Amino acid sequence: MHCLRDEDALIPSPRGSLPKVCAALVATIATMGILLLSPGRLINLVALATLIVTLGPLLHGLYLLFEELLHHSNTRYRGRSLLGHVLPACGLGPKTLLAAAMAALLLYLTRHSLMHKGQSWELVVLVPVLYALFKCLGVLGPSEMEVSDICEERKMNVAHGLAWSFYLGYLQLVLPSLEKSIDSFRDSHRDSFWGRGSQKLLILIPLNANISHKLEDEDSYIQFYDSLPNTELHRAGVRDRVYKHSVYRVKDERGKAHDCAVEYATPLLTLYRMSQERNAGFGEPERRQQVLLFYRTLRDVLDQSLECRNRYRLILIKDEHEDDPHFLSKTILRHLEQQNTEEFCLSGALQQETNKPVEVEDWHHSEPMSREPTLMISLDRPQPLRGPIEDTDLN
């Protein structure tokens, strides 16, 4: 499901590999410069730099390992293996250990050069010790961007959990039967103004996460009309748990009414309440970022869901509309109009394809492989099967 272009401009995209490219480029330029200026000392300098860079994280990882083994081995790891779980958790994974092994190898190969008067052997000991100290004190801790990148890559954000919970605990259960509920509602409400393009559940996602429990309180052009037939499912020990959707009547500036099923994404209530609780440590900037990540995650999850396809529409609501009392109704109507346009174009194309006359004379012409397969009908009368013909040359 695609959103509007102005919504795409607000959604943060996943971070790319530009820092890695920049690091590789600068390292290459620095190495080439040293190779041109001091070609005989390149190996020695690389060995010294590798030792300084890798021994610091290794020493810091050992500090963390002591803490985990002495105080948390039973409660946090519950007897899991040292190599498979504890060491990677302390930052002593395969990459760090491989870098340390390479540093030890370079130390062995360049042990005579490092003792030269021109080399700073003391730095090999002093820099890792100071690095581990500053790391433990938080001076060299990960930046906010790095923490955010790790949380997004490993799906550890609050927004990821809320989006998956909203999908698995609600949308995946109710959206497959939405079309049937809408058809039943339209049959029982002959006076309904339900358009062709509103056969989906409109899910509102405001950026400020401030949700009103009644849409008519936010916009006088929106009025509650009725509810769709209830969906009852056995869920988590509850017999016949009821899921329901509200139908709202939305009027435009000319007074024309449009009926649709619309509701807020309820997990945003959790984000808003967390930002109001001091113990959560969740301010307004973090809340806004989590709302955007919630929208992006939910959109990506629903795009891959066959059960929910073409049964929903996500509407991201900006928070710069205090001066417009009918911003919400205009936003909903704009999405309904877009749905009508999309479905009209699609149905018109299918109708033209269906009404296209069949050219019997041209059935033998080959079709391009890139086109949809067509059914070729022959008007010739069926012929009887022919017996085998002996064509062996006996001469």
TrEMBL record:
GO terms under cellular component: autophagosome membrane; endoplasmic reticulum membrane; endoplasmic reticulum-Golgi intermediate compartment membrane; Golgi membrane; perinuclear region of cytoplasm
Location of the protein in the cell: Cytoplasm, Perinuclear region; Cytoplasmic vesicle, Autophagosome membrane; Endoplasmic reticulum membrane; Endoplasmic reticulum-Golgi intermediate compartment membrane
Species the sequence originates in: Poecilia formosa (Amazon molly)
Segments crossing the lipid bilayer: 18-38, 45-66, 86-109, 121-141
Membrane topology classification: Multi-pass membrane protein
Domain STING transmembrane: 44-155
Chain residue ranges for the region called Disordered: 356-395
Protein name in UniProt: Stimulator of interferon genes protein
UniProt feature, compositional bias: Basic and acidic residues: 356-370
UniProt keyword list: Endoplasmic reticulum, Membrane, Nucleotide-binding, Transmembrane, Transmembrane helix
Domain STING ligand-binding: 157-340
Family recorded in the similarity comment: Belongs to the STING family.
GO BP terms: autophagosome assembly; cytoplasmic pattern recognition receptor signaling pathway; defense response to virus; innate immune response; positive regulation of defense response to virus by host; positive regulation of macroautophagy; positive regulation of non-canonical NF-kappaB signal transduction; positive regulation of type I interferon production
Entries under InterPro entries matching the protein: STING, STING_C_chordates, STING_C_sf, STING_LBD, STING_TM
MF (Gene Ontology): 2',3'-cyclic GMP-AMP binding; cyclic-di-GMP binding
Major localisation: cytoplasm
Catalytic activity, reaction form: H(+)(in) = H(+)(out)
